[in-house]
Records
---
Amino acid sequence: MSSRQTIDDGLSDGVPLLGAYAAKTCAMRIHNDFDATIPKVEWEPSAEMQRMFDEGVAFEEGVLAELANLLGSSLVGIESHRSRAESVRLTLDAMRGGALMIGNGWLPDDRVGGRQGRPDVLLRVSSGDGAAFYVPGDIKAHKTLNEAKTKSAFVSLPGEP
């Protein structure tokens, strides 16, 4: 499990906070991760699995670098070495400033909704009434192994989502 896939750094107030990874994970797995009566097992990825993780990180960094080249100052990048608190502050500052896209942002914990998030990108979109909000995006290096039956797809550019 990569650092971006961790479910929570702790159980503050006894309330588990779930990230996007939990949405695609078995509910029993999530339960077991938070059940203090179940012993935790250390896991070391195989060399092949570690290579895939490393390739995914490199792919994400490459995509973010290309987006930075294309968008210039419209993309605010949050450096991954920053602390959680500093990353949350910089993400909120970028949102308040109306950045079109935020890379490596870190959202504040949502205690009411039981969620936390560190999406790869946040994209600013406008609703019909002119209000703006941010939607999360995930950058993956997944490869398509099967030919799709559909020969077309809807695509939008970051500047015109």
---
Amino acid sequence: MSAASQGLDANALQSSTASAVAATVRGAQVKLESYARTMAETGVKDLFKGILALVSQHDNTPQTMRLRNKFVPLNPAEWKSQFDTVVQVGLGTTDDETKIAFLTQIASKQEQILMQLGPQNPIVTMPQYVNTLRSIVEIGGFKDADQYFNSPQMIAQQQAMQAQQPPQPDPAVAAAQQKAQMDMQIAQQKAEAEIALKRERMQAELQLEREKMQMEMEIRRQELAMEAELRVAKAVTDAEISTNLPRAQ
């Protein structure tokens, strides 16, 4: 491990390209990573397995711990004596930036697949996309990724609840149905208005015919009355004439 890779010599990396500097720093980090992994796999893992065995054997008092942002009671006596242990070693800021850049590319590709093929595509699921986003948050140094994205378990529960609910109608179909209903209502109102207008017209025509018949009957009655008066007057006149004529000698 040279002084240049440790950042101790201010003049060692002058007039060097960015790739050469990155390769020098990366070489030192690879060695540090190898040392850290060796110590973690051969020492730290066995140490914590021993601690777990002692806690499970001697501690039988239930305790309340925060698990996934929820406080739950835990009894160490009920734990198993062995668990699968996964060692994760911090590799420095530069390596984290590389991982974040790579995960960002993965997230971009996942977004593209989800937008083109939909959430039910056979390549990427929504929980996988959320895992990528949560990994970016965790690598960035934020321990609680739940502050930014829901967990895949919560997303699965929400999807199950949505699947149990009746499907929401398509907005285009709903708009078409609403327009059809409005058109039917308008057509019904128009038909009712036409029927009412025809009814009023028929009633007006019937009333006009009735008035016309009454007028004709009144005229006929007056004509009959005048004819009767004329006959009476003629009969009176004929009687007077016959009375005033001289009798034959």
---
Amino acid sequence: MNYLKRSVVLRILIGVGLLFVLLSKGLQAQTLTAFEVEALSEERVQLAFAMTEKASLPKIFQMNSPARIILDFVNVKSALQQKRNAINQAGISNLLAVTAGNRLRLILNLKEYFSYALKVQDNKVLLVLEKKKASNPALLANRIDGEKASVIPQQAIKKVDFRRGKKGEGHVLI
């Protein structure tokens, strides 16, 4: 190859390499770097989850048996040193951080039932938990970014029936 052809090929390779570096940086997932637990009062506690970039609201849901609050972050990885992080204060047992694909799930194992408020502040996701005394934990009010979240009422199975389909398959009716 002559000098001109080598120069053009070299410039193309450098351009493709730079494009690859820029794209890979743009596709990198955000990272959870740390979390802090702060007691705001006897009844309220705040968890702050620090991210590498501007944070966005995760999907959040609550389980009653056992008592848990679960946060799902999309395109977020965990840089926490441990998968299971002991907290053992303010009614919170531990925090479990599980990464699957491009999703990070944080599971807060609780000792009692809490209502929650969730908001984003720059590169932090703030979760404020408040102890509630309620006979039915499913009726606790929760807020996401200042708005009330709908809570699914307690449900029960009243009847189970089995039927045979046209091709001999079984159907379970609940």
